[in-house]
Amino acid sequence: MTTTGSLAPDADADADAAGPSAAARPALPAPYLRWLAGAQLGALGDAALAFALGWAAAAHGGAAAGLVLTVITVARTVLVLVGGAVADRLGARRVMLAGDAVMLAATLALAAAAGLRGSPLGLLLLAALVIGVVDAFYLPASGSMPRLLVDGGELPRALALRQAGGQLAALLGAPLGGALVAAGGLPAAALVDAASFAVLLLVLLLLPVSDPRRAPAAGSGTGKPAGNSTDEPARLLREAAAGVRLATGDRLLRSALLLAGAAAGAVLPVVSLLGPLLARAAGWGAGAAGLVAGAQGAGVLVVAVLLARRGAGAGRPPRGAGTGAAAGLCAAAAGIALLAAAPVPAAAVIGGLLTGAGSGLFVGRLGPLVLGAAPDTHLSRVQALLTLVQSAALVLSTGALGLLADTAGPRVPIALCALAAGAAGVLALASPVLRRA
């Protein structure tokens, strides 16, 4: 799943923005930029491989293609809380190094196996399982890295730049994957992804992450040394549960996580699932569905770039982050409503653009809010919980919305998504906790 009038700074900030000091805003730290460049290269390779896996699985039928995607999602969802606990205990960089090493070996093995045997369903399911398991440990660690490499005042700008890069990788990944599949099939896409993991491994090895803010026994909560006892799995589960208790016991984190889940369930299925169904039902064709999806991606990208350029100002924490996230969700709801009522493809494209812009604002403001509110000892566990909430909401809503679209047509579930997103945005605007964030 995850600006601006509500985020207006005070008078001093306005004067700064208008004067020469605006141009003197410090650049983001070089280690962060190096890591971000490597991470986005990896994201591009992952997107290309995801397209290639989906294409290969589609040759076995729709049910097989859905099963491959389900294996990735289920493995990630089941293990992500444990992954967050491991990253908090061992450190984000160590977990990411291990994950990149495993994926480098796995993608090389996938390329070799696909070159020798083609793409049988068993091989695709095994690749999906490895990807899902590694994601469960990698995503919480990766999500905590900006907090470890960037000062708090520049965190919104750093996360917006990451969001822009991720969106660009998503937009370019499918065409790249298609070109690689056309040129060399699944082995070519796997080899390109392996090369991206090799580059990211090198970047991480050279990255100076001392992480002085992490407690020596982050999140153990027991005071016991982390030895090699037979109780280790149980201890990891207790640490994961401690992260859940912390997040659900903190009013700001609890409200932000609930809002993230609502947004994921109401917004994410619209373009990926309901938009194509609407284009088919209305007789617009695949081209129109692609334009709607592209407009949504462009809206996210433009807002992310604007947020990255604007930032929060040197040394200033972002103001109105909760209000900005709620306003973004309301804007996304308006775009979804326009899509539900669109009589022609042009109106649907405008709805997709507005949906993307609202989503970009929502993620650009809620991300720094969640990451900034997490204690230093629980960074990865809070990111894991954020991933879990969004994944669970997406899985539940996608199935229900698909069934509703089969019985009532796609416009009804799209309208319900607009209502749900709008209601969540209005409730967030009315929440004192989020308004003060």
Please give a structural write-up.
The protein contains 14 helices and no strands. It has helices spanning 11-18, 30-58, 62-90, 92-117, 121-149, 155-205, 232-249, 251-282, 286-310, 321-341, 345-373, 379-408, 411-430, 432-436. The chain is globular, with a radius of gyration of 21 Å. The model is unreliable at 1-24, 211-227 and 312-317 (pLDDT under 50).
Structural class: mainly alpha
Alpha-carbon distance between the termini? 21 Å
Mean pLDDT: 82
* Strand composition percent: under 5%
Rg, please?
Answer: 21 Å
Net shape: globular
Name the poorly predicted regions: 1-24, 211-227, 312-317
Instruction: Give helix and strand order, one letter per element, not per position.
Output: HHHHHHHHHHHHHH
Share in helix: over 70%
Strand element count = 0
| Biggest sheet overview | none
- Helical stretch tally: 14
Topology of helices and strands:
Blueprint: H1 11-18, H2 30-58, H3 62-90, H4 92-117, H5 121-149, H6 155-205, H7 232-249, H8 251-282, H9 286-310, H10 321-341, H11 345-373, H12 379-408, H13 411-430, H14 432-436
Helix pairs in contact: 2-3, 2-5, 2-6, 3-4, 3-5, 3-7, 3-12, 4-5, 4-6, 5-12, 6-9, 6-11, 8-9, 8-10, 8-11, 8-12, 8-13, 9-11, 10-11, 10-13, 12-13
List keywords for this structure.
14 helices; globular; mainly alpha; disordered N terminus
